[in-house]
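User: Design a sequence. Structure:
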């Protein structure tokens, strides 16, 4: 059993054997809340990926746990080795033609994971499985959200509940991954890893920057949502895109079901986004008209009777994510369009 000791900050556990020299920070300003709210309404300063890029001029092959790039010409495809699965279609949706996926690194990296919720837990699982040296910054979790702090204890992973921008770093990171972290990360932290820092945002950036991205996409009756892994800069969800994928919004979706589908697909792309990050991929600029939504419940959770019926029905579904409060109408909780009609009829 490893010996635990206090680490800079009031709430932190760190195995003694892995204690490293802290990286000094220039300033310790408090961080604003960031794009990674817990799964409530996917208020995770959700950033979606906008348009898909055309296919690059190389085909990516996956074999025996390694990713390699190969010229995408007819002769190469004809000589495709058995057991190789080509990812041309997926890559064409995520990379500009000028970037290529490099081979998977085989050496251990020093990685800071800023995470929360089950997605943060899954990111840690993947990093540990890849034998990386990881330190975690996370938050206290309510009973209904999987606790990354508890998972750190189970896996003997050092972690802190302090704001990463307000405490010395445990070591010089090769890169930083932000997965539903709730604080904006300040410039001195970005500089500490030479800009190798990425964030997962649940929207098709530049649409729906800020909070409650999936909820707002449903309320606006969009046909699709999605996720974006992007580089972190000084703005809010404004960095260059590494990976982006669209996810259709179903006519039966609730906020909860859409969150689970988008988050699951996003974590399936975590390893790919991380490899692009450590390989110094430049990513691509966000293209399109941006939109931003501040923290807070959309429309304060209140149904507007002047809305068309189809928007009211969609809004009700967009507010369903237990144990968070459902839509409200004149002081009454509404869980379905039928309940809303019943509440209206009782007024007459």
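Assistant: Done.
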């Amino acid at each position: 059993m490893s010996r635990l000791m206090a680490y800079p900050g009031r709430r932190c556990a760190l195995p003694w054997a892995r204690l490293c020299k802290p990286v000094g920070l220039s300033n310790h300003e408090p961080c604003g809340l960031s794009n990674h709210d817990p799964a409530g309404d996917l208020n995770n300063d959700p950033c979606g990926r906008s348009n898909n890029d055309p296919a690059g001029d190389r085909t990516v092959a996956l074999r025996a746990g390694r990713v390699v790039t190969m010229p995408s010409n007819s002769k190469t495809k004809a000589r495709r080795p058995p057991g190789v699965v080509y990812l041309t279609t997926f890559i064409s949706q995520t990379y500009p033609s000028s970037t290529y996926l490099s081979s998977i690194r085989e050496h251990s990296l020093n990685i800071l994971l800023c995470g929360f919720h089950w997605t943060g837990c899954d990111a840690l699982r993947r990093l540990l499985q890849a034998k990386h040296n990881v330190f975690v910054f996370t938050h206290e979790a309510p009973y209904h959200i999987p606790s990354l702090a508890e998972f750190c204890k189970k896996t003997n992973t050092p972690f802190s509940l302090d704001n990463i921008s307000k405490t010395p770093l445990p070591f010089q990171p090769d890169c930083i991954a932000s997965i539903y972290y709730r604080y904006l990360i300040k410039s001195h932290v970005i500089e500490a890893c030479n800009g190798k820092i990425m964030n997962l945002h649940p929207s098709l950036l530049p649409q729906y920057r800020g909070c409650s991205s999936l909820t707002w996409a449903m309320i606006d009756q969009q046909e699709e949502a999605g996720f974006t892994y992007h580089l972190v800069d000084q703005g809010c969800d404004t960095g260059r895109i590494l990976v982006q994928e669209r996810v259709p919004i179903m006519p039966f979706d609730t906020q909860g079901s859409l969150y689970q589908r988008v988050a699951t697909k996003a974590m399936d792309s975590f390893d790919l986004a991380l490899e692009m990050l450590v390989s110094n991929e430049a990513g691509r600029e966000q293209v399109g008209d941006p939109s931003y939504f501040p923290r807070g419940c959309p429309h304060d959770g209140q149904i507007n009777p002047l809305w068309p019926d189809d928007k009211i029905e969609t809004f009700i579904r967009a507010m369903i994510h237990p144990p968070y409060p459902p839509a409200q109408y004149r002081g009454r909780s509404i869980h379905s369009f039928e309940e809303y009609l019943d509440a209206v009829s009782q007024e007459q």
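Residues 1-105 have pLDDT under 50 and may be disordered. The longest helix spans residues 255-268.
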